[in-house]
Amino acid sequence: xxxxxxxxxxxxxxxxxxxxxxxxxxxxxxxxxxxxxxxxxxxxxxxxxxxxxxxxxxxxxxxxxxxxxxxxxxxxxxxxxxxxxxxxxxxxxxxxxxxxxxxxxxxxxxxxxxxxxxxxxxxxxxxxxxxxxxxxxxxxxxxxxxxxxxxxxxxxxxxxxxxxxxxxxxxxxxxxxxxxxxxxxxxxxxxxxxxxxxxxxxxxxxxxxxxxxxxxxxxxxxxxxxxxxxxxxxxxxxxxxxxxxxxxxxxxxxxxxxxxxxxxxxxxxxxxxxxxxxxxxxxxxxxxxxxxxxxxxxxxxxxxxxxxxxxxxxxxxxxxxxxxxxxxxxxxxxxxxxxxxxxxxxx
Length: 347
What we know:
By secondary structure, the chain is of the alpha/beta class. The protein folds into three domains: 4-87, Arc Repressor Mutant, subunit A (Orthogonal Bundle); 92-163 and 271-341, D-Maltodextrin-Binding Protein, domain 2; 166-261, Periplasmic binding protein-like II (D-Maltodextrin-Binding Protein, domain 2). The chain is 41% helix and 20% strand. It is built from eleven helices and 14 strands. It has helices at residues 4-16, 19-25, 30-44, 60-87, 106-117, 130-139, 203-217, 230-238, 284-292, 294-298, 323-341; strands at 49-51, 56-58, 92-98, 121-127, 144-147, 156-164, 166-171, 191-195, 222-227, 244-247, 258-261, 271-278, 308-309, 315-316. The strands form five sheets. Strands 4-3-5-12-6 form a five-stranded mixed sheet, with helices on both faces. A three-stranded antiparallel sheet has the order 10-7-11, covered by helices on one side. The chain has a two-stranded antiparallel ribbon with strand order 1-2. Helix 5 links the parallel strand 3 (92-98) and strand 4 (121-127). The radius of gyration is 32 Å and the shape is rod-shaped. The protein starts with a helix and ends in a 6-residue tail after the last helix.
């Protein structure tokens, strides 16, 4: 079988029709070039050139072989370039799991950023609940996932990519929809649509988070319905069955007749979205993704992308224009957490 080095020699001689010029083009002497052509002709079992002391011409077999030789060289060079780009993480694919809740606002931002930073990497998305994502990560069918805590951290790396508050969802005719600075205590004994405690989806995460907020505030809303999904809760709020607490990013799902209001003070802890991947994952595209995309997402993890709040406390649904404002909010949140860590009796 012939070698690619022999093909390069053949193409050079075929294009120059002169062994001396072809040898100079290839930065080699003429005898080794002639030897490579002889080896190629022997491997093919045909004569590629008619040689005389005055000229070199392609034979019919040589003319037929030339475009094929060029194509094989292009394919080989393309394969080498592709392999190097995949090894550097500039090409390839990433399979990413995500929960339904992460698609309200964060996932579109992630996808847009990945497409801008890594245009030649295919992002394959799989909607899965957190438990299924963790199983898929262990089986190697996912490169990374967007999950809610708690998860098994053994063998995994986690990064918090979003922190956002829960906000009040109320029918537009409800008194709390227009109240001045509504707070958690205003929900005491109010008809409330709660997350299902036995939900296999994110409902369990938000049930536990909401329950902890009510316990800390020493209030007891009147639960009238339990749902697993935020969009179902918003539909019931729209029907006037009660109020609810929903992640701020769910504003993209806002049903007709529903108003979102900031609670003051902002309830803590905030809802968190984590990105998780296996520590031993050797996908170069995932490494590039972590280097280029993840830092830009984590930079605003304590802010509220892609949402914000107007001065009147009503939630608006647009991307923040000033990164400085997001950074300021992030710093304030971190200062608040640090102050809590130093409170007497805090463990």
